[in-house]
Amino acid sequence: MLLKTLKTHLFLIILILFAATPRLLWLDHFPISMAYDELNYVLNAKSFFRSSQNIPWTASSLFSWGEKDFDIVISEIPSLINSIWVGPHLLSQFNARLPNAIMAILSVIFVYLITRILLNETIAKIAGVFMAASPWNIHLGRTALELSPAVFFFLFGIYLILKERSYKILLSLPIFVCGFLSYLGAKLLFLPIITILLIYKFKTVKDGPKLPYLVYFLVSLLIILIYFLTLTFQPAGTRKGELLIFNPEWSKHVVDNERRQAIPNPALTLFSNKAVALSQRVIDTYISSFSTTNLFSKGETISVYSTWEYGQLHYIDLILIAIGLLVLFTYYRKAFYLLVSLIVVSPFASAIDIVQETYAVRSFPLFPLLIIVSAVGFWFIREKLKFGKVLSVIIGVVYLISFLYFLHLYFFRFPIYSAERWMFSQRLAANYARLAQNKDGIKKVYIVTIHSSKWAFEEYLFYSGVYNTSDQVKRINEKMKVRDFSDGKVVFLEKCPKMRDFTEGDVKIYDRRVDCGEKEAGNHGFVDLKDAGTVMIIENDILCQDNPDLQRYSRVRSLKDLEIESQNVEQFCRNWVSKF
Question: Which residues pair with 58 in a beta bridge?
Answer without folding.
Answer: 72
